[in-house]
Write a structure and sequence with these properties.
The structure holds three protein chains of three kinds. By secondary structure, chain A is α+β, with helices and mostly antiparallel strands. Chain A contains 15 helices and 17 strands. Helix content of chain A is about 40%, strand content about 20%. In chain A, strands 1, 6, 7, 8, 11, 12, 13, 14 and 15 form a nine-stranded mixed sheet that branches. A three-stranded antiparallel sheet of chain A has the order 5-4-16, with no helix packed on it. Chain C is flat and about 55 Å long. In chain C, about 35% of the residues are buried. The chains are: A alpha+beta, B alpha/beta, C alpha+beta. Chains in contact: A-B, A-C, B-C. Chains A and B meet through loops of A and helix 9 and helix 10 of B.
Chain lengths: ~475, ~500, ~100
């Protein structure tokens, strides 16, 4: 038996996700990524003496949205607390956070793996807090804190609203961790509560990893892994940590409780400092802010405005349309595109053809022109018309493709174009026969090849007929006629 | 315009154009220049800025505006921000800090026509009852330069008493307006918590801090409060309720009012002369038509213990930001933690350190419930006591401080200093509006009569009644006028 | 809630205040005295009393999500004890897990 088969991993994930708002959590500075250092600051987010926080209503609404998406409880009463600790990029030297009464409690994240298996990870809570500024460590040569001689601080990010999503230890593998994070990401993007750009640091996560012999119910000693800055590095870091812990145990050692920093470049983790002494954060209710009462009517209103949550959509597409995992995932990755698709299906009643257009030609055009499908000039109404024209065999797929290109450029209703330009496919046997005869007459060498047994040249002849007919000839009829005449 | 003029008189004349704000300002600056060397009320005198503000007021008046505090010289406690001026909190850690923004209350007073003459001394970060905790200067009591002016807003009180300003603003966390007002023979008023915006007031204890006026008459206190009170969207704890003006609600008598005398605040515990003085004050209230009723505040005795857990706990967190990173003093260290520790060791004085330490302890793991939460619960009981008492009366009367101003360096033990706020802390914990109005003089030794203050306290949001009643008492008794400041004596250090 | 011997050094470390040995002694005894006074509260029965964090009963004080003015960077950095370009500069941070 392989050593790794004797153990199972137990993983919990803490995610910090920056909320998408115009202004910061407790002041009117812009919530924007980047910019010249220390230009998006004011007395409040710089913690100048005497400045006071006022909570951003939108951020609180976003929290309720996020909670409802995962069927979390939204308690009627919530409050802000101060988490006290000193750090140079934290202006007040306390962080406004939520301790015992977060805006959302419980809930579960449903996600799926590449093979389509549905998984569930329970949430402990999602709470609202403020982000810190950013430190750049200098003098260590590699930008790392270890060995640095000094640090430079930019407070532009300080005070950006942040939700911390804490999961229960329900995750069992690196792949599940990525599936879970993907689910959070696509849900938050769909809800508009965050852009979730890991490269800009708007989603940051830490993983608590432990192992235990398969069948054991007791939890092993966990290590906390930090500094993972992409989903790929989360996967690698967790895999590495599981292997490391198995190695420790198999060689007779014991896993120690510690924080480890992931080193993406070297594909390894480094112990940062063992948590021999828990930090004493001295949480207490922030006396500068007043409590939040969340009215049922407010929750109901937000619930009423909720879009279809990705995992429900996933299950629906799989069950009702029979799409494969990859197509389904691709479609719902972008909620607006999936809404567009749903509208195409509603109007056309042809999910498969709608899927082909949306993920195929339309997505290609979107890539080529750098305009999102939903922002393009092609409406779902027009897509449904096009599907109708195909279904009625008024046009063939080649014409359909050409039409889509023109519709993308703003040509409007495909039915109108077909009528105006006489593009309707012809099934008039006499007319088609004339095209076929012309083509056979013009290509005697090919005809000879065919008769000599090279029947694969038929495709060329069909193509020539289609071309001569301006694409209007019904392809199966062309095929049949050529076969008959040369037969 | 005489330095003794009231704010009401100055504003009337400046608005009428019979005197200019610039003339009032120049006269006041002259007064400051001649007496502040002895009093030490100000840490910063705004000579040029004050004249600029005055010229602006004169221009506005000339343009037809009528301003409630037109040209009124104002002393601003130096824990309130004023753009472009040093705002020190009486601390070495902020000694050179220049505020880039203005506190809402100060901005409103300026907008109402008041002229900031300077930034007034205070106990460091408003922690103290004598001004002796200021790291940046000594303020003396204008009625006896050998005595303290009280604190923490001692500079504002002394400035108004010594006619170095007509009105002042201070902040009151546990008595920091009322006690120095009593010591300096002026009116000091702490409004209901949340009535005056705290935006730009450098926090000591956020759930207790409240800005209020100093003045030589109740009417001036009312005018100043009316100009700076009311909701401010920049302060989440600012009350969003209609602002009730007070200057138009001053009373001539106290007929129909029930005034509670607190059984637990038995003035027989005080010095004999003080006891006699308060006994007479209560009789004077009665003579004005009030009915005196016996009320009880059984948990008021726990106020001090409650306050000295809650206020330090909040302060330990509020003062964390003074870390040498963004502004203020920095003492370098080998790493950032060493820098923090050295900066804060050098920047804070002993009283501030004491409170940060005890507050840190009260919030720390294992002690939070035993100290901080228990104090919060005691705070509930104290508030409830007041609610019950106000079921039986309209106002409560009691001493503002347990003694008159004391000589410098006479309270070496921290707790004996804390005891100075015994009568003011319960109201602070309950968030109630309360004021101190001069109620007579006692001989505190050396043959110098020293003033004392009567504290009046009202239910939440009852500022109008409170100031109205205080005015009736003041007009009938006129104690403040009995003695003038004694500024010509030699300064004893 | 009996009289505690306070670990002044630990508390000072949490509060990031360097103390001399003399201060540890002095503050230790003063804080002990103050806590003895605070311990008077143990005489109160607070078992069924709600904690008051604030005397006001305001709820849901929130601002609209609108952008306002920022401070000028030079104004901000002019007060910095040490700056480097557009940044605040601090001595090295000893790596420590949060």
């Amino acid at each position: 038996m392989n050593a790794s088969d004797k153990y199972e991993a137990v993983i919990g994930i803490e995610c910090h996700v920056e909320l998408k708002t115009a202004s910061k959590m407790f002041c009117a500075c812009p919530n924007e990524f980047g910019g010249e250092p220390n230009t998006k600051v004011c007395p409040v987010c710089l913690a100048l003496p005497g400045a006071l926080p006022v909570a951003n209503r939108k951020a609180i609404e976003h929290m309720v949205r996020a909670g409802l998406a995962f069927d979390a409880d939204i308690p009627a009463f919530s409050k802000f607390d101060r988490k006290n600790y000193f750090y140079p990029d934290m202006p007040k030297d306390y962080q406004i956070s939520q301790f015992d009464m977060p805006l959302t409690q419980g809930g579960e994240v449903k996600y799926w793996l590449e093979d389509g298996t549905m998984k569930v990870c329970r949430l402990t809570r999602i709470h609202l807090e403020e982000d810190t500024g950013k430190s750049t460590h200098a003098g260590s040569g590699d930008g790392r804190i270890a060995g640095s001689s000094h640090s430079l601080i930019d407070f532009n990010r300080a005070g950006v609203p942040l939700m911390e999503c804490v999961s229960e230890p329900d995750i069992r593998s690196a792949q599940e961790a990525v599936g879970y994070l993907d689910a959070l990401k696509r849900t938050f993007i769909l809800l508009g509560v965050s852009d979730v750009k890991m490269e800009e640091g708007s989603l940051r996560c830490d993983a608590n990893v432990s192992i235990r012999p398969i069948g054991a119910t007791e939890l092993g000693t966990k290590a906390e892994i930090k500094n993972m800055n992409s989903f790929r590095s989360v996967e690698r870091a967790i895999e590495h940590e599981i292997a490391r812990q198995i190695g420790v145990v198999e060689s007779g050692g014991r896993v120690v409780q510690e924080t480890r920093g992931w080193d993406e470049v070297n594909g390894t983790s480094i112990s940062m400092r063992s948590k021999e002494q828990a930090h004493d954060y001295r949480y207490f209710p922030d006396p500068d802010l007043v409590p939040i009462e969340v009215a049922r009517a407010f929750v109901d209103r937000i619930r009423g405005e909720m879009p279809e949550i990705p995992w429900r959509r996933f299950e629906r597409y799989r069950a009702e349309y029979g799409f494969n995992v990859k197509q389904t995932t691709q479609m719902i990755e972008d909620g607006a595109l999936a809404d567009y698709f749903d509208e195409c299906v509603r109007l056309s009643k042809n999910p498969q053809q709608a899927l082909n257009f949306v993920l195929g030609d339309l997505s290609r055009l979107a890539n080529e022109t750098d305009v999102a499908v939903v922002q393009s000039k092609v409406t779902p109404q027009e897509v449904a018309e096009l599907i109708g024209l195909l279904e009625s065999k008024t046009i063939n797929s080649k014409i359909a493709k050409d039409l889509l290109g023109r519709m993308w450029a703003g040509a409007g209703s495909p039915r109108a174009i077909v009528q105006a330009e006489g593009l309707a496919q012809t099934s008039d046997e006499g007319a088609i026969e004339k095209f076929v005869d012309d083509v056979l007459a013009a290509n005697p060498a090919v005809v000879a090849d065919y008769k000599a047994g090279k029947t694969n040249v038929a495709g060329f002849l069909v193509g020539q007929v289609m071309k001569t007919s301006g694409g209007k000839a019904n392809p199966p009829m062309v095929q049949a006629l050529i076969k008959k005449k040369l037969g | 315009m005489a330095a003794q003029s009231t704010a009401a008189q100055i504003a009337r004349e400046v608005n009428a154009g019979t005197v200019s704000a610039r003339e009032v300002t120049d006269a006041t600056l002259e007064r400051i220049d001649s007496v502040d060397g002895r009093v030490g009320a100000y840490l910063t005198v705004l000579h040029d800025r004050a004249r600029e503000f005055a010229d602006r007021v004169d221009a506005r008046v000339a343009a037809g505006e009528r301003l409630p505090l037109a040209g009124v010289p104002l002393a601003v406690k130096d824990n309130m921000c004023l753009t472009g001026t040093r705002t020190t909190c009486g601390s070495k850690i902020l000694e050179q800090w220049v505020a880039p923004y203005t506190a809402t209350a100060v901005a409103r007073l300026i907008d109402a026509g008041a002229i900031p003459m300077g930034k007034a001394n205070l106990d460091e970060f408003a922690m103290g009852s004598s001004c002796e905790n200021s790291a940046l200067g000594v303020t003396r009591n204008p009625y006896d330069l050998a005595r303290v002016p009280g604190g923490s807003s001692g500079g504002s009180a002394a400035a108004v008493a010594a006619h170095e300003a007509t009105v002042g603003v201070g902040s009151d966390t546990g008595g920091s307006i009322r006690e120095p007002a009593a010591f300096c023979n002026v009116v000091g008023f702490k409004p209901t918590y949340g009535r005056v915006s705290r935006y730009g007031l450098i926090a000591f204890a956020s759930s207790l801090d409240q800005i209020g006026p100093f003045s030589r008459t109740v009417q001036d206190a009312a005018l100043t409060y009316d100009a700076m009170g009311g909701h401010d969207p920049m302060d989440s704890t600012s009350l969003d309720v209609p602002m009730e003006t007070t200057a138009d609600g001053l009373l001539d008598d106290l007929r129909g009012l029930k005034i509670g005398i607190v059984r637990e605040f038995d003035t027989e515990k005080l010095d004999g002369a003080a006891h006699a003085l308060y006994t007479r004050a209560y009789r004077d209230l009665q003579a004005l038509g009030a009915e005196l009723v016996d009320v009880t505040l059984p948990t008021a005795d726990y106020g001090l213990a409650t306050y000295y857990l809650i206020a330090p706990a909040e302060c330990s967190s509020n003062l964390a930001r003074f870390d040498g990173v963004r502004y203020g003093l920095r003492v370098d260290g080998d790493d950032v933690t060493a820098m923090y520790e050295a900066t804060r060791a050098a920047g804070f004085g002993p009283e501030v350190k004491r409170r940060i330490l005890i507050g840190t302890y009260a919030l720390s793991s294992g002690y939070y419930d035993a100290y901080y939460v228990r104090a919060q619960k005691a705070r509930t009981l104290i508030s409830d006591d007041f609610k019950r008492a106000f079921g039986r009366c309209d106002l409560i009367a009691c001493p503002a401080a347990s003694s008159p101003a004391f000589p410098f360096n006479s309270k070496s033990d921290p707790y004996s200093m804390y005891m100075m706020d015994y009568y003011t802390i319960p109201m602070s914990l309950a968030g109630l509006p309360a004021l101190s109005v001069p109620c007579g003089w006692v001989d505190a030794g050396a043959g110098k009569p020293m003033p004392m203050g009567l504290q009046l306290c009202a239910p939440l949001l009852s500022e109008r009644l409170l100031l109205g009643a205080a005015h009736a008492y003041e007009q009938a008794t006129n104690h403040a006028q009995t003695h003038a400041p004694r500024l010509d004596e030699a300064v004893v250090s | 809630m009996s009289s505690e011997k306070i670990d002044v050094r630990y508390v000072a470390k949490l509060a990031r205040i360097q103390l001399t040995d003399e201060e540890v002694q002095r503050f230790g005894s003063q804080l002990g005295d103050l806590l003895d006074h605070a311990n008077a509260l143990s005489a109160l029965d607070v078992s069924s009393v709600a904690a008051t964090a604030q005397v006001i009963e305001s709820r849901n004080v929130e601002r609209d999500d609108a952008v306002g003015a920022c401070l000028d960077r030079e104004t901000v950095l002019a007060q910095a004890p040490r700056r480097q370009g557009g940044f605040f500069r601090v001595p090295r941070i000893i790596a420590e897990a949060e």
